[in-house]
Design goal:
heterodimer, A: mainly beta, six-stranded mixed beta sheet, five-stranded antiparallel beta sheet, B: mainly beta, seven-stranded mixed beta sheet, four-stranded antiparallel beta sheet
Chain lengths: 112, 115
């Protein structure tokens, strides 16, 4: 049972445009959501997070939006840069439980 | 280096053999996690350590999998009688505290191939 889903395995975006990566979840108990970025042959690195009490969190070029009623979150990257090309994982957790539940990832390619 | 260190980086083993994967967390980090990523799948939680104890082993897929952590530092994940479905990247992560997913630091992973 995939509790966190990233339905787009890949996405290509022109440099300078907006990249939008989507994530859906099924477990309404999730309190906290995170996005990780992964380059080939490296471990995932934390990018941005959002608590379930918020609907938006912004950090520079990265903004995460949370729609709890739809159980949906998205990561916006604007403007997209070639260095943003990587696999992006959405993850969720329940406070008090140390287990992160990950989606299957979306491979983002920024076209120069 | 200052990051999470894993060894071996690559391991090819014959079906039925035992393997040990090692994780050296960031110095001072009390929490240690093991995840794995199979081809086409997301990261799958295996086990979590707080100090030397493992409060959550719920992700270990079978009794062929075990892990230990000694001295609150290095951890070893052991897979006995490996099967082809064990082929995956095994990722270790550490954190200076619990309850904050954004402070988890991942290693580069150990790529395991069972032939």
């Amino acid at each position: 049972d995939q509790q966190v889903k990233q339905n787009s395995p890949s996405l290509s975006v022109q440099e300078g445009r907006i990249s939008i990566l989507n994530c859906d979840y099924t477990n309404s108990m999730f309190d906290y959501f995170l996005w990780y970025k992964k380059y080939p042959a490296e471990g995932p690195t934390f990018l941005i997070s959002i608590s379930s009490i918020k609907d938006k969190n912004e950090d520079g070029r990265f903004t995460v939006f949370l729609n709890k009623s739809a159980k949906h979150l998205s990561l916006h990257i604007v403007p997209s840069q070639p260095g943003d090309s990587a696999v992006y994982f959405c993850a969720a957790l329940i406070f008090g439980n140390e287990k992160l539940t990950f989606g299957t990832g979306t491979r983002l390619t920024i076209i120069p | 280096g200052a990051g999470v260190s894993q060894s071996p980086s690559n391991k090819v083993t014959e079906k039925g053999k035992d393997v040990e994967l090692r994780c050296d967390p960031i110095s001072g980090h009390t929490a240690l996690y093991w995840y794995r990523q199979s081809l086409g799948q997301g990261l799958e939680f295996l086990i979590y350590f707080q100090g030397n104890s493992a409060p959550d082993k719920s992700g270990l897929p079978s009794d062929r999998f075990s892990a230990e952590r000694t001295g609150g530092s290095v951890s070893t994940l052991t897979i006995q009688r490996t099967q082809q479905e064990d082929s995956a990247v095994y990722l270790c992560a550490s954190s200076p505290q619990t309850g904050a997913g954004n402070t988890i630091y991942f290693g580069e992973g150990s790529w395991l191939t069972v032939v």
